[in-house]
Specification:
Helices cover 34% and strands 23% of the residues. It has ten helices and 14 strands. Helix 6 links the parallel strand 5 and strand 6.
């Protein structure tokens, strides 16, 4: 899949596709339905598929640190779209210039002169442009004028209502990873490059692979049973490590039955079950005892998991 970083990096070979626009945070089952529509349209029109998205997300630009927790980083989003067979992703920095761009300018500069799209798939409640002045009807009229189709997205719902990023955030915040996985169509995951830490885990007998959270706000906090893709099972703490006066959020994963060097490697952590909330212990010995209990609880869970799949 091709990554186009910004409007000015669009090349002639990127033009003439069918496109969709959105935040696509989480790339959940609703987003996946949009991509299926996009593929069907691309087959009919014999062209490529393009996803137009933003980084930072618009609400992060306007809300700053008060913005909801992001579910997927740009890199994670790229990987998921690649797995869904999308041909190219245009990511635009949502900054002051883009915030001031009128809806008509967006249509002219991005959709027409930039990508020269053949068709656009968006929801009928989609709003865009300065002051959110642009809407589905404006896009439909523009399509008639410039010669591209505008098609409404399908709505994907379950018994609780429309599948949305907000519902997934709420499930993750509550530690309900099963519901989050159902809405996503896969276990929730976070990824990053393993960095050197303070080596405290190694000194107390539980070495960890550490990654920084590439998000303003973490959607998860606590201790979890996890699977690290292509490596194995583990126990992960995501938080501030209050027992050792940690500063800033960190993801620390103790891999079970693993002895190797992961420094500098990019790993993907699938969150399977919340074991407990993060808390401060009176001593390192108390922390060690609790970690041992966490590992036992995780092993019991993994054993049950494997018995269900056999």
């Amino acid at each position: 899949m091709k990554l186009i970083r910004g409007l000015y990096n669009i090349q002639p070979e990127h033009r003439g596709s069918v496109a969709t626009i959105g935040n696509f945070d989480g790339i959940h089952r609703g987003h996946q339905a949009v991509i299926r529509q996009l593929h069907e349209l691309a087959r009919r029109l014999d062209c490529d598929t393009t996803v137009i998205t933003f980084d930072p997300l618009p609400h992060e630009y306007f809300m700053g640190g008060k913005a909801p927790a992001r579910l997927t980083t740009l890199r994670e989003k790229f990987i998921q779209f690649d797995r869904l067979g999308v041909d190219q992703m245009l990511t635009m920095p949502f900054n002051a210039r883009l915030a001031e761009m009128t809806a008509q300018q967006f249509i002219d500069d991005v959709l027409v002169r930039g990508l020269a799209i053949k068709a656009l798939v968006v929801g009928d409640d989609f709003r865009f442009g300065k002051g959110r002045e642009g809407d589905f009807e404006m896009l439909r009229r523009a399509g008639e004028h410039y010669g591209f189709e505008v098609i409404d997205t399908e709505t994907v719902s379950d018994e609780q209502g429309r599948i949305s990023s907000t519902r997934i955030r709420d499930a993750l915040a509550a530690g309900d990873l099963e519901t989050a996985a159902t809405l996503l169509g896969r276990p929730y995951s976070m990824s990053g490059t393993v960095i050197h830490g303070e080596k405290l885990g190694r000194t107390i007998g539980f070495p960890t692979a550490n990654i920084r959270i590439r998000r303003t706000v973490s959607p998860l906090r606590g201790v979890f049973a996890v699977e690290v893709e292509c490596i194995g099972y583990g126990v992960t703490n995501v938080g501030t490590r209050p027992t050792v006066d940690g500063k800033g959020f960190l993801i620390e994963t103790h891999l079970l039955d693993f002895d190797g060097d992961l420094y500098g490697q990019h790993i993907n952590i699938r969150w399977l079950k919340k074991l407990r909330s993060e808390r401060k212990f009176d001593s390192l010995d108390a922390l060690k005892a609790q970690i041992a209990k966490d590992i036992d609880a995780a092993r019991a869970y993994f054993s049950q998991l494997e018995s269900q799949t056999n």
